[in-house]
Design brief:
Oligomer: single chain
Helix content: 10-25%
Structural class: alpha+beta
Shape: globular
Order of helices and strands: HEEEHEEHHEEE
Strand order of the largest sheet: 1-2-3-6-5-4
Number of helices: 4
Length: about 160
């Protein structure tokens, strides 16, 4: 049995980089999904986006979201807008996001645009796997359950 803190270390190892997830939001009980690049650190996933985007409009009305990876990783949680990247409280995470997303950060984001923002997803629960072990994690109660999970990708390209 792995303890919760060890589970968070494994999470950081797997997702503490540019990792693409499908982000699910909902408006008027209608789900919407799009792929986003994320970075995981200290119990949260971070996304670079714009306040004017559909995902942000939906999140402002309903912060409940889900993240689903192409290889079955999935998390549910609450999303919040952290504000513009140049706001003082975002200085530390901005440095990390610029580094992690270096190949495309400035090519696809305009920090002169007041609509640019960071989105933080605080997961409440989820599932991930690493090196043949599956992990069900409950962030609220700080518990994690591990079990054998010999993953074989069955994903196909479009």
């Amino acid at each position: 049995m792995v303890d919760f803190e060890k589970g968070l270390q494994i999470l950081s190892k797997v997702f503490g980089r540019d990792y693409q997830f499908a982000l699910a939001t909902a408006a008027d009980n209608v789900p919407s999904i799009r792929f986003v690049d994320t970075y995981y650190e200290n119990g949260c996933f971070y996304i670079v986006t714009y306040r004017s985007s559909r995902k942000m409009r939906e999140i402002l009305n309903n912060p409940n979201v889900a993240l689903h990876g192409r290889t079955m990783h999935n998390f549910q949680g609450k999303a919040t807008c952290m504000g513009h990247p140049l706001e003082p409280q975002n200085a530390a995470i901005r440095e990390k996001l610029i580094e992690v997303f270096r190949p495309w950060y400035f090519a696809h984001n305009n920090e002169a645009d007041e609509q640019m923002c960071y989105l933080k997803v605080e997961p409440t629960n989820g599932f991930f796997h690493h090196d043949g072990t599956g992990y069900e994690i409950d962030f609220v109660n700080r518990t994690i359950r591990e079990f054998p999970f010999p993953f074989e990708s069955m994903c196909t390209a479009d």
